[in-house]
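User: Hi! I'm working on a homework problem where we have to compare a predicted structure to a textbook description. Could you give me the structure for the chain below?
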Amino acid sequence: MKKNLKREDYKLISKEDIIEHLSEMEKKVTLSNGTEPPFRNEYYNNQEDGIYVDLYTGEPLFTTKEQYDAGCGWPSFTKPIKREVISEKSDRSHGMARTEVRTGESDIHLGHVFTDGPQEEGGLRYCINSAALRFIPKRDLEETGYGEFLPLFEEK
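Assistant: Happy to help. Predicted C-alpha cells:
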C-alpha cells in the first residue's frame, strides 16, 4: 500500500482498490486471519516515535508510546489509542483459546491480545501483525492529517 497517503485519502479509496495494492502477506494477514513471521516483519523493532493506523481506513490504532519489546517478534502494545477502535472475538483456531483483535471500522484481522503484558500498564499485550498496519512517523503527523496526535508525544 502507498506509504504517502494522507488521512483524508482513505475516504476516497474503496476497500477493493486497497486490496488490489496489498502485498500477499498483507492480504493473508488482514483477510485470512494469517500471521506473519516473527522477527521478520516491518515494525517489531521500530524505535521511531509515531502512530500506527489501519491499513485499510487510516483509523489511528496504536502509538509507539505504548509499544514495547515483548520478545515475541511482533509489535506489542499495552493498549490501543482508543479502546473503541478495535474489537475482540474468541479465536479457537490451531488448538488454542485466544482473543483475536480486529479493527472496528474495516473489520480486518490485526493479531491477538494476551494477559501477559506489563502489570504496571494493565497487564495486556496486544500482539499485532505489522502487515495490518501503516506507520506514520511523528515528524509526518501534521502533514498527513494526524496532527491531533502530536500532544501524545510531549514530555510531561
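For your comparison, note the following. Residues 113 and 151 are 26 Å apart (CA to CA). The beta strands are 50-54, 60-63, 67-68, 76-77, 86-91, 98-103, 109-114, 125-128, 133-137. Good luck with the assignment!
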